[in-house]
Design brief:
Layout (H helix, E strand, L loop, with lengths): L1 H18 L16 E3 L8 E3 L9 E4 L9 E4 L32 E2 L7 E20 L6 E7 L7 E7 L2 H4 L16 E2 L11 E6 L13 H7 E11 L12 H4 L5 E11 L8 E2 L15 E2 L5 E2 L5 E2 L30 E4 L1 H6 L6 E4 L5 E2 L5 E2 L3 E3 L11 E3 L34 E2 L5 E2 L3 E2 L10 E2 L27 E2 L5 E2 L3 E2 L9 E2 L7 E6 L6 E3 L3 E2 L5 E2 L3 E2 L6 E4 L4 E3 L15 H17 L3 H19 L3 E5 L14 E6 L3 E6 L6 E11 L5 E9 L15 E8 L5 E3 L4 E3 L5 E9 L10 E11 L12 H12 L16 H15 L3 E2 L7 E6 L6 E3 L3 E2 L5 E2 L3 E5 L2 E4 L7 E6 L6 E3 L15 E2 L5 E2 L8 E2 L6 E2 L5 E2 L5 E2 L3 E3 L9 E3 L13 E7 L4 E6 L3 E2 L5 E2 L3 E3 L8 E3 L28 E2 ...
Parallel strand pairs: 8-9
Antiparallel strand pairs: 1-12, 2-6, 3-4, 5-12, 6-10, 6-11, 6-12, 7-8, 7-11, 13-14, 15-16, 17-18, 19-20, 21-22, 23-24, 25-26, 27-28, 29-30, 31-32, 33-34, 35-48, 36-47, 37-40, 38-39, 39-47, 40-46, 41-44, 41-45, 41-47, 42-43, 42-46, 49-50, 51-52, 53-54, 55-56, 57-58, 59-60, 61-62, 63-64, 65-66, ...
Helix pairs in contact: 6-7, 10-15, 11-12, 11-13, 13-14, 16-17
């Protein structure tokens, strides 16, 4: 038949293509490929079979045939096949060609009955294997496997399984169709028992049904690459009789026999060779043979061009591509090397520009391109980088430079590099790095820093030059700084700092500190006891510094001695009073003889005065009071008053420090005469101290003149006193310049004072500057003079400091204040002197005694004596009792009272009491302890409760008042009475609460029964809430309150009346201020609401709060309603809180939300409030209002404006928004057509969706589909027969049948199927081109005219459907299956790890090449799409509407 003839022609053409190698592809612009051919040609010796009939001797075999008479033959393969001599040899090499030279068919045949047979091709190199064709002489195998090896037979992997029943034969191998190009599946189409001969098996490595996105990917290359190919026949196809009978004659007809085996491929060159040469060691040179060694181009080399040539490795080796040969690039080593290698890391780091790394650089160069100088060399900036002399030796001191003398290899200003510049160690400087930096010393090669830091303390070094010696490291210190690192202060200095001298002097107080050394950090000196402060110049609280006159001995405390006492020094002068007495006696006798009585009496009087003076004590104590406004010029209580010639003896035993003391005597003369003092100082024990032990004599005598104009005298020379010794100072006082003692001559001695001679103390001794300065300061500030004057003026600050220093030395610290706790105000005293703060009338340094004129020392101080000047003989009183010394006729502690019965001191008079009292008040004369019921200042009236006239004298002149009972009884209700002589009645003066002439009634505001004995009137208990003058305010008998005031009520007016609240007892009842809108209606009447009588809280309605019910409870509103307030019910998500307006209920909404409870979108917002509210954002130039639809967000657009925001021109308008202009009138016509098409498309889309959901086409039944299929079969048969007239007629009839009313979609699908079938079956027909042209023209016209109304809609539906399918596949793949992202990720990770571990560099290279190829394929796809679109446009333009009319399809 014609069909079989066509198939024969096709097969003949295919065989020609198999035998002939393809022409090579040039390498002008991109990849090049060698010729493709049968790999078996020339490799007969490499082709083997595990079973061949007749190898060991002739074997019988039979065939299955009903047409041929001879069914059994002989096979003898001991010799190779020869067309004349050995025609029955069926070795494996017979499959290389289909027939011999004479056209006779040749074949390979296995031994009969043997099922497991393998054919194997061993190649000498790697080859590209594309497909395999086997033509069988007998039945095709019932099962077989095609396998490959890429490592010369060490490992094998299956390509494809073939079986008549895959599930039973190979149960573990998938039997479904291919999904991926590298799937290993089992196929059944080549394993059927038919045909019995000339059956073929065709296997293509790259199945045409699976698109290959990247033919250069590792996956595809690995799939094509082989070194060995093996075909395993595992099961014979039989007629089934072998299962029942295994005899030889049965099995002889079952064997494998192949006419022809074609293994199509080419040498494997990765696109870098257009021809191949024989592999070394292979001498076969057969015509059409495909050799295995690539003749490489593009600077590649290797058996398969699998690597770049030496020194051409600047880019990664990649397989060539269609438009990019990926030529290997020569390395750039700047003429310093001819070797290099490729480094993928470098390639990636350069942005895929260059990856070549030069090896074995010469001329002292290094680097990827030999572009840098090696360590210890630098690039000469004046030479080219390719110059052999470009790198010069560094000139750096290896001791002070880094890395043993490495310098900057080149100049790079951005990196701070200068060619040849030495890199010094951290602490080294200099061009050659041979000098220590400033602040460092000791250049050493072993020191990683080069030099050691001086470590000089910057505060202690001189700022000029290097801080330390660069050899020794000794620092240069400031004046008062010491130490190797200048970090210590000199002794007696502290406070290392940045000032000029580095440290400051300690300046320790020479007395307060033990020495002049201090702590270097704080400057704290070493203080004596109870001294504080950095310089030890401050006194600890509760302690003081002794003043210079601290050792003061009051004359009042010294023992007085008479002039004749031998304890006093000096001679006793005669008393002038003896001569005076003798003279007065003589004169008195003389006057008696002459009877001059008056003169004699005068002399006797004078004589008595003299004798009185003689009896006056020689030494008395004279205490002086401290009078306000008078200056106190003495110390202590007063003075010792010493008579002329008498003296005082002082005992001294409290010397603190062995040294010389100046002796000073304070005094006050009573006359203008000068006095003198004879002083004797004696030590009881021999001096034993170093200071006083060698001084002689131990007793000294002084005679000093006491001038009357002065108040003190300092002895002419000091005396050495020492501790632990007792001294007696005896002083005789006598008038100066006279020979006799006078009885009336006295002098007042205040005290004896020892003043230390400070010039012999440390700090004042020697010729040092500080000692001289201290001595000068004592004199300049007259510090000693302050203690000569009484009272002592305020000390200068300098004097206080110096005196504290002196006191600290003498007492080895400060002295305790020891203030008397009873007499002082605090335990602290003055810093200098130690004077405590005394209470009133208390004196003494320690406040431990009463001042003169006071008494009663205690916790309150002392009390003034206040002795009456007229009644007492002295201002002093007993210090304990305070009793003054009274004159005659005066009595009392102060001597200020008259004798009993008298008054009016000091002019005392008798008391005047009308005979009713004996005593009266001493000051006023008011009578006391009166009798006879009399009263008054002079008992001139009766007592209260009595009446009469007591002036009449002693006697019962006062009678009791009857009110109504007698005074003193339990029925007396008045306090007095008087006589009403006109009425002859006694009128009572009633007590409070009583009234009536006899006080027998209760007054208003009181109640009781006063008319009965014992009865009384009590105040009405109305809490002051009644009018006390109102007789009706309360009941006079029971006391019940009747007329309550101030809005109170109750039995005791103790409660606020209804409608008022507050404190009734405090008269603070206020009206209730309840808000009627919030108060219970039952609590309000006539505009007045009741409230709590105490707190004023009103009874509120439900959910109303506040004391006066004036606000809703939190989160409530609608104030004023009868039911109270209602809940706000604010939306918890859309509101800012749960509260709302009390009157409107409006909640506080978040931005974008509105409504009373925030459950709606705010004005100018839209959306679902439960999800989100979005702003309308209506365009101001496109919308009528700013608001939009609350549900859709659509703004109200102006005419000609459209869009949700009215921000674009509407349909039918054109222009740039907002300038929208109405389109031409023809637009409306086109718009109607487009709208109709859109509706039709929507209907088609809906119908397609129904088909996809139900699988049934609406309006088309099974019978109709079978009828259409029958018609379609007839069309295919006619096309196969080639009868054009019948074809034309049947196509027209078929098209009419296919045109179903309202079934355009179904027609379109079936019609497209018809066209596809026609073009597929006629694609290889080469005869009758005119008839084919007519047919194609008719088909094209019919196709165009039929599909013209629906072409656009169908394409859209098809695109939507394809998108849906792709989305479904992506969705399914993303959640399950072996190709889901999770599984693919795991698989990719495993493959990646294995590839990276095995061939890291090759993997990275291939990835880069594949990426490049993918990009180019994408570009090709874009170009192809543009080409298809251009062709479509050309076809559309070429259509002629008349053609449509001609065939009746225009409508």
């Amino acid at each position: 038949t014609t069909l079989s003839a066509d198939m024969t022609a096709q097969r003949t053409l295919f065989v020609c293509l198999v035998y002939l190698p393809s022409s090579p592809h040039g390498c002008t612009e991109g990849s090049c490929y060698p010729a493709t051919g049968n790999l078996l040609i020339g490799r007969a010796v490499n082709l083997t079979a595990t079973s061949t009939c007749g190898l060991n001797g002739p074997e019988q075999y039979c065939i299955v045939s009903h047409l041929q008479l001879d069914k059994c033959f002989e096979c003898d393969s001991r010799r190779p096949y020869h067309s004349l001599r050995h025609r029955n040899s069926h070795r494996i090499e017979n499959v290389i060609y289909l027939s011999d030279r004479s056209g006779e068919l040749t074949w390979w045949q296995s031994s009969s009955g043997k099922e497991d047979v393998s054919l194997r091709l061993n190649l000498e190199a790697e080859f590209h294997f594309t497909h395999l064709i086997m033509k069988f002489k007998t039945f095709r195998p019932a099962a077989m496997i095609i396998e490959r090896s890429a490592d010369f037979g060490r490992t094998w992997r299956p390509y494809r399984y073939f079986a008549s029943n895959c599930t039973r034969t190979f149960p573990g191998v998938p039997a479904k169709g291919l999904h991926h190009i590298n799937d290993v599946i089992c196929e059944e189409r080549y394993s059927d028992i038919e045909p019995s001969t000339n059956g073929e098996v065709i296997f293509k490595v790259l199945d045409p049904s699976i698109p290959v996105r990247d033919p250069y990917s590792l996956e595809i290359q690995e799939l094509l690459r082989i070194t060995n190919l093996r075909i395993n026949f595992t099961k014979l196809n039989t007629l089934g009789d072998d299962l029942l009978d295994r005899r030889t004659d049965v099995l002889q007809k079952y064997y494998y026999a192949i006419y022809e085996l074609v293994v199509r491929g080419s040498c494997f060159c990765y696109g870098h060779a257009s021809e191949c040469a024989p592999v070394p060691g292979v001498s076969t040179r057969e015509s059409g043979m495909i050799h295995g060694r690539c003749v490489c181009k593009h600077n590649t080399e290797g058996l398969n061009c699998e690597r770049c040539k030496d020194f051409h490795k600047d880019l990664p080796w990649r397989p060539a591509e269609a438009e990019n040969p990926h030529t290997c690039k020569e390395c750039n080593c700047n003429g310093h090397s001819n070797q290099c290698h490729f480094d993928m890391a470098v390639y990636l780091a350069t942005g895929n520009v260059s990856g070549g790394v030069c090896d074995n650089c010469l001329h002292n160069t290094v680097g990827r391109n030999c572009e840098m100088c090696q360590p210890f060399y630098y690039q000469d900036p004046n030479r080219d980088v390719r110059d052999p002399q470009v790198c010069l030796l560094c000139d750096c001191d290896p001791v002070g430079s880094l890395d043993g003398g490495v310098c900057d290899s080149h100049t790079d200003l951005d990196m701070g590099m200068i060619a040849g510049q030495c890199r010094c160690k951290a602490n080294v400087k200099g061009i050659r790095c041979d000098d220590c930096k400033v602040g460092y010393y000791g250049l050493s090669q072993n020191d990683p820093q080069g030099c050691q830091p001086c470590n000089c303390d910057p505060r202690g070094i001189i700022r000029m030059g290097d801080p330390c010696d660069q050899i020794s490291g000794d620092c240069s210190c400031k004046r008062y700084v010491s130490g190797r690192y200048c970090d210590q202060c000199l002794p007696e200095y502290w406070g290392l700092s940045n000032d000029q001298f580095g440290c400051r002097p300690c300046e320790c107080d020479f007395g307060g500190a033990l020495n002049n050394r201090c702590m270097m950090e704080s400057g704290q000196c070493d203080c004596r006891r109870h001294l504080i402060g950095r310089q030890c110049s401050e006194v600890q609280p509760g302690y003081f510094c002794a003043p210079l006159d601290y050792y003061k001995y009051e004359a009042e405390d010294a023992s007085g001695h008479s002039p004749s006492d031998p304890a006093l020094p000096g001679k006793v002068r005669p008393q002038a009073a003896d001569d005076c007495i003798q003279h007065l006696s003589n004169q008195a006798r003389r006057h008696r003889r002459h009877r001059r009585v008056s003169s004699s009496q005068q002399y006797h009087t004078a004589l008595r005065r003299i004798r009185q003076l003689q009896q006056t004590p020689d030494v008395t104590t004279l205490n002086r009071e401290h009078s306000p406004g008078l200056v106190v010029t003495w110390t202590g209580p007063g003075f010792a008053r010493v008579k002329d010639g008498a003296g005082l003896v002082f005992t001294i035993d409290n010397i603190p420090h062995a040294m010389e003391y100046h002796i000073m005597l304070r005094y006050e003369p009573e006359s203008t005469e000068d006095w003198e003092a004879v002083v004797s100082i004696t030590s009881v024990n021999l001096p034993s101290s170093l200071r006083c032990g060698n001084l002689l004599p131990t007793e000294q005598l002084y005679t000093e003149t006491l001038l009357h104009r002065n108040r003190y005298i300092q002895m002419s020379r000091p005396f050495c006193f020492e501790p632990n010794n007792r001294y007696v100072v005896a002083i005789r006082f006598q008038r100066h310049g006279v020979a006799h003692r006078h009885l009336t001559a006295f002098i007042l001695i205040d005290s004896l004072i020892l003043i230390p001679k400070y010039t012999e103390l440390p700090g004042f001794q020697g010729s040092g500057l500080q000692a001289e300065q201290n001595r000068e300061d004592m004199v300049r500030y007259m510090c000693l003079d302050f203690f000569m004057i009484t009272p002592m003026p305020l000390l200068a600050e300098m004097c206080s400091k110096l005196i504290c220093s002196i006191s600290s030395i003498i007492h080895d610290g400060a002295l305790a204040c020891q203030c008397d706790p009873q007499g002082s105000l605090s335990s602290e005293c003055n810093r200098v002197g130690g004077q405590c703060r005394c209470k009133p009338n208390v004196m003494g340094r320690r406040c431990d005694q009463c001042a003169p004129g006071t008494y009663g020392f205690g916790v309150s101080g002392c009390t003034a004596c206040n002795c009456h000047p007229d009644g007492s003989s002295s201002h002093q009183c007993d210090p304990l009792t305070g009793q003054c010394s009274c004159r005659q006729g005066a009595i009392g502690r102060q001597c200020s009272d008259c004798q009993p019965g008298q008054w009016g001191f000091p002019s005392c008079k008798r008391c005047q009491c009308n005979g009713h009292a004996d005593l009266c008040a001493p000051q006023t004369g008011e009578c006391r302890a009166g009798r006879d019921n009399a009263a008054g200042h002079q008992c001139e009236r009766c007592k209260n409760g009595f009446y009469g006239n007591p002036v009449l004298g002693s006697g019962e002149h006062c009678q009791p008042c009857q009110c109504p009972g007698n005074p003193g009884s339990n029925h007396f209700n008045g306090h007095s009475c008087h006589s009403d002589y006109s009425a002859n009645l006694i009128i009572c003066n009633c007590n409070q609460g009583y009234t009536g002439s006899r006080c027998d009634q209760c007054a208003p505001g009181y109640y009781g029964n006063p008319e009965q004995p014992g009865g009384q009137c009590l105040p009405c208990q109305c809490n002051n809430n009644i009018d006390p003058n109102d007789p009706e305010s309360c009941d006079r008998r029971t006391g019940q309150c009747l007329r309550c005031l101030y809005h109170t009520h109750g039995q005791f007016c103790s409660e606020c009346e209804p409608g008022y609240h507050g404190d009734a007892i405090a008269q603070e009842c206020r009206r209730c201020t309840c808000v009627t809108a919030g108060t219970l209606q039952s609590a309000c009447h006539d505009g007045l609401c009741h409230c709590d009588p105490e707190s004023g809280a009103c009874p509120c309605r439900e959910n109303v709060r506040g004391r006066v019910c004036d606000q809703c409870a939190p989160n409530h509103w609608n104030f004023g309603e009868e039911r109270g307030c209602e809940p706000c019910d604010c939306d918890p998500q859309n509101s800012l809180g749960t509260h709302c307006n009390m009157f409107t209920g409006q909640c506080h909404c978040r931005p974008g939300f509105g409504g009373k409870t925030c459950t709606e979108c705010e004005q100018f917002y839209w959306g679902d409030p439960q999800v989100a509210c979005r702003e309308c954002n209506c365009h101001v130039h496109g919308s009528n209002l700013r608001v939009c639809d609350r549900t859709t967000g659509q703004c109200d657009c102006q005419e000609g404006k459209a869009g949700q925001r009215c921000d674009e021109c509407a349909r039918g308008f054109t222009g740039a928004f907002p300038n929208c202009v109405r389109c031409h009138q023809c637009f409306q016509l086109w718009d109607d057509i487009i709208c109709q098409l859109k509706r039709d498309l929507d209907h088609i889309h809906f119908t397609a969706q129904r088909i996809l959901e139900s699988g049934v086409m609406p309006g088309v039944g099974d019978a109709r589909i079978r009828e259409l299929e029958e018609k379609l079969k007839q069309v295919k048969d006619l096309i196969g027969s080639g009868r054009n007239e019948s074809i034309h007629h049947l196509i027209g009839q078929a098209i009419d049948d296919l045109r179903y009313p309202n079934n355009t979609f179904g027609y379109t699908i079936l019609y497209l199927l018809l066209l596809f079938t026609l073009f597929t079956e006629t694609s290889d027909t080469s005869s009758d081109s005119n008839r084919r042209t007519d047919t194609e023209r008719m088909i094209r016209v019919n196709n165009t005219c039929l599909l013209l109304p629906l072409l656009d809609q169908f394409e859209k539906v098809k695109k939507d459907y394809q998108k849906s399918l792709q989305a479904e596949e992506k969705c399914n793949a993303s959640v399950s299956g072996p190709f889901s992202p999770v599984e693919q990720s795991n698989k990719t990770r495993r493959i990646t790890e294995e590839l990276l571990e095995a061939t890291k560099d090759e993997f990275l290279t291939s990835v880069e090449a594949n990426n490049q190829t993918l990009n180019e394929l994408q570009q090709e796809a874009l170009k192809l799409g543009e080409t298809v679109q251009d062709l479509s446009q050309k076809v559309s333009r070429s259509l002629n509407p008349r053609m449509c009319e001609e065939f009746g399809y225009l409508e």
